[in-house]
Amino acid sequence: GESVGLHLPTLSVQEGDNSIINCAYSNSASDYFIWYKQESGKGPQFIIDIRSNMDKRQGQRVTVLLNKTVKHLSLQIAATQPGDSAVYFCAENPWDSSYKLIFGSGTRLLVRP
Amino acid sequence: NAGVTQTPKFQVLKTGQSMTLQCAQDMNHEYMSWYRQDPGMGLRLIHYSVGAGITDQGEVPNGYNVSRSTTEDFPLRLLSAAPSQTSVYFCASSYGMGQYEQYFGPGTRLTVT
Question: Which pairing describes strands B64-66 and B103-104: parallel, antiparallel, or unpaired?
C-alpha cells in the first residue's frame, strides 16, 4: 500500500553540526514532496518542497534531495541550531490524488548544546 | 494576518457528547482541510473543502461532519464523541489542492473519556 516512512525516529546532533533526516516513500505516482517542521505544541510549518522533475533543492540552511530510483527523500540542515529542535515530517502528493498529502510518522531532532 | 486560527485549544468530552471545533483563516484561501494527529503517527486527512459550499471526505471521515458556508470558516463537528477520537486536530488552508504550501493552525487537543 501507499506509505511514507522515516528511518530514524530520533536524531541527536551537536549544535553546529549538519543534520540529515531521511524518508522513504513507496508510491511511485508521487510527484511532489514536502518537509514540515513541528515544534512542541504547534502546528506543522512548511520548510521546503521539491517536485519529481528535480533531484535537489536548496533553501536557507536546508537542502532536500530526492532519489526517485530508490524512492528516498532527505532533508539536510546545515549548522544545526537549538531552534531546529523539533519533529520533522515528510509528506508526498500523488499526481493522481490532487487533494491528498500522505504524511510520514516523523523524526524528532534533538540538538545538543 | 492572523493566519489560521483554531478554537478551543483544549477540550475534554465525555463519550457520546457532541461538539464543534472552529477553524478560520484570513488569507482568502480556497482550500481548507482537517487533520488528526495521533501519538507516533503522521497527520491523517479527515475532510477537506475546495471552496465555499464544497466539501469531501479524506482518509478518516467517520464520526465527523464538516460544512463550508464561507471562504473563511471550516468547522469540524463531532457527532457523538468516542475515546478513539482522542487526538490533536489541525486545520490547514492553502491556495489550492495538493501541490501548494499548506498553512496549519495551532491545533486543538481533544480528550474523550
Answer: unpaired
Q: Does residue B8 have a cis peptide bond before it, meaning omega lies within 30 degrees of 0?
A: yes
Cα separation, A94 vs B75, in Å, equals 27
Chain A residues with CB-CB distance to B102 below 8 A: 46, 101
Residues of A in contact with B39 (CB under 8 A): none
Mean pLDDT, residues A45-67 taken together: 95
Chain centre distance of CA B6:
9
Positions of chain B with pLDDT under 50: none
Can you read off the three cell numbers belonging to residue B96? 489550492
Cβ pair B99:A100 closer than 8 A? no
* Confidence label for A8 from pLDDT (cuts 50, 70 and 90): very low
Residues of B in contact with A89 (CB under 8 A): 42-43
In chain A, the residue whose alpha carbon lies closest to the alpha carbon of B91 is A43
